[in-house]
UniProtKB/TrEMBL annotation:
Residues 8-125 form the Saccharopine dehydrogenase NADP binding domain. This is Saccharopine dehydrogenase. Pfam families: DUF4166 (PF13761), Sacchrp_dh_NADP (PF03435). Residues 412-570 form the DUF4166 domain.
């Protein structure tokens, strides 16, 4: 490229998603960013904040170390040709919305860009808007411009995940995708309005291989979002939402029998109330939830309780190349405030491609399939975002830990992978055992059969595979106790369940460098769920040290204190 900066006009540049895009691109010195919206005052305030040093770091766009950032006023209802000609952007990104409410002149911004030979992209999530952008294809090609719609989580990221899983299948029959935002993320009013616009209304989905009428925020499916290598989100129901994938999937997969796109919010009781309100729309007690959009937004902010984590999933079912049934899932988990960056990572990837001279084909089309999963994964490295693929249902079952870990299995150190390779095996070594001194701790240890305290105790562990579970028989210097390990089902899916007598402890398997951590996520007593604040916990992990398998198991609780802690090493016997 020449010395002139590449100019990007971000419509809605100080909004929920446009502002995050500006922050992502603000460190790129080859860019000139125009932060645009109807209010020049708000745009100026945002740019001033962007340039303000924070936590000792220099502000973005300051001293020419990053992008040149400028606040501008832009009115999509004004003279678009005059505004665009004056600003002279190379790319216009529409991050405003809600695209569902743009009306008969929905594409006027895209059309104005094409007429002036300016590239265009948006993060639309409206099925009709994204699917209809193809009507501008001939004009865009004639002008030598690019117009991509839906460069967001759905459909750009979801289709990138689909394309990564598709090679495992000879035929894809079912596709489901969903987004689970953190309860602590402040959802923008435009997003709430978009969802409220179709609550209780008909949404076209695929059922039994034919188009069918689903109901927005009423139809549901339960999913546990579990990215390989991260503690799963809590199991939740996802309510049907209108997303571009529903219109685009049948053309992508000719044999598609069913489709679903959903949102799973926390707290779930609030989501159930929202679904109840959608039923009132279906029964025509209410004409629409749109008048209540601001109230719904305030409720989501007021009841921000639970974990500050979000996620996404894409699940595919069909037939593999051997003719066997296969279900494959791609899952993502974002920690803290990182989740809301995901919808604009696709635009960031497009901009960085254009900066390197890598340009998609001219024309106007949905963004489904425009980017590869690797493009998104490279951007995820800047955040606390974990993603990966799991084979969730294979007729030739994998070893227990490999099934649960999915693609994160490949990150295990060799000593850990060997011990959990499945089948009948024996490992032996030495251990140090500590026991808690409290009365309740001694009672629990006696019921389960934990060994007595000791130094340099000989230990042997025998692993026996029994269908889909493993029986671990531990022998600590002649003191034997057993447990059963298996994959959780239903709400406990993607968790490792370990059964000690009447107790069942549910754990997430989380690789952490050379360690595999076992994080308690729930527990049961004779099948009855018990409060998490009373759950047995402790610092429990496995690790490879000098090529040898080492273990550190700690079991205790608020009521018992330390019950038992045993540490040591094991070698697999030939």
């Amino acid at each position: 490229m020449s010395g002139e900066r590449f100019c990007v006009l971000i419509i809605g540049g100080y909004g929920t998603f446009g502002g995050r895009l500006a922050r992502l691109l603000g460190d790129e010195p080859r860019l000139r960013l125009l932060v645009a919206g109807r209010s020049l005052e708000k745009a100026d305030d945002f740019v001033a904040d962007l340039r303000t040093p924070k936590d000792g770091a220099e502000g973005l766009g300051s001293n020419n170390l990053g992008a040149m950032v400028q606040a501008v006023r832009f009115d999509r209802d004004g003279d678009l040709t005059e505004q665009l000609t004056r600003m002279r952007p190379a790319l216009v990104v529409d991050a405003s919305g809600p695209f569902q409410s743009f009306g008969k002149d929905a594409y006027k911004v895209a059309e104005a860009c094409i007429d002036l030979g300016i590239d265009y992209a948006d993060i639309a999530d409206s099925t009709g808007f994204v699917a209809g952008i193809g009507g501008l294809d001939a004009a865009a090609k004639a002008k030598g411009t690019l117009a991509l719609s839906g460069l967001s989580s759905l459909p750009a990221l979801s289709f990138a995940a689909l394309d990564a899983m598709a090679p495992h299948f000879s035929r894809i029959e079912t596709v489901a995708a969903g987004i689970a935002p953190s309860a602590h993320v402040r959802i923008g009013l435009n997003v709430v309005r978009a969802i409220a616009s179709y609550a209780g209304k008909k949404i076209t989905v695929r059922r039994d291989g034919r188009p069918a009428a689903g109901r927005g925020l009423i139809d549901a499916m339960r999913v546990t979002v579990a990215a390989p290598g991260a503690a799963p989100l809590r199991s939740r129901k996802f309510l049907l939402v209108d997303a571009p994938d529903l219109a685009l999937l049948p053309a992508r997969f000719a044999g598609l029998k069913s489709s679903f796109t959903g949102v799973g919010t926390e707290p779930q009781p609030l989501q159930r109330l929202l679904s109840l309100a959608a039923r009132l729309v279906r029964l025509r007690v209410l004409p629409s939830l749109l008048p209540f959009a601001r109230l719904l937004q305030r409720a989501s902010h007021a009841f921000a309780v639970g974990e500050h984590r979000g996620g996404m999933f894409v699940r595919v079912g069909g037939v593999d190349h051997a003719g066997k049934r296969l279900t494959c899932g791609w899952h993502l988990i974002a920690e803290g405030d990182d989740g809301p960056f995901i919808p604009i990572i696709g635009v960031e990837a497009l901009v960085r491609r254009l900066l390197t001279g890598t340009r998609p084909e001219n024309g106007a089309r949905p963004a489904a399939g425009e980017l590869q999963l690797a493009d998104f994964e490279a951007a995820f490295q800047r955040f606390s975002i974990t993603s990966g693929i799991t084979m969730e249902n294979e007729q030739a079952p994998l070893p227990l830990y490999q099934r649960i870990l999915g693609s994160a299995w490949e990150r295990l150190p060799p000593a850990l992978a060997a011990l959990h390779a499945g089948g009948a095996r024996v490992a032996s070594g030495r251990a140090r055992i500590e026991r808690g001194g409290g009365l309740l701790a001694r009672i629990v240890a006696g019921v389960i059969g934990f060994p007595r305290a000791g130094e340099d105790v000989p230990v042997t562990v025998r692993f026996a595979a029994d269908d889909d579970k493993e029986i671990w028989t531990r022998d600590f210097g002649g003191k034997i106790f057993r447990s059963i390990q298996l994959e959780g089902k239903g709400r406990d899916r993607h968790l490792l369940a370990e059964v000690f007598g009447p107790f069942r402890v549910l754990m997430a398997l989380v690789p952490d460098g050379e360690k595999l951590r076992l994080v308690v996520r729930g527990w049961r007593f004779f099948g009855i769920p018990l409060p998490m604040f009373l759950a047995p916990g402790g610092n429990t992990y496995e690790e490879e040290r000098d090529g040898r398998f080492h273990f550190h198991v700690e079991i205790g609780g608020r009521l018992t204190g330390l019950v038992v802690r045993y540490t040591g090493w094991l070698d697999l016997e030939e």
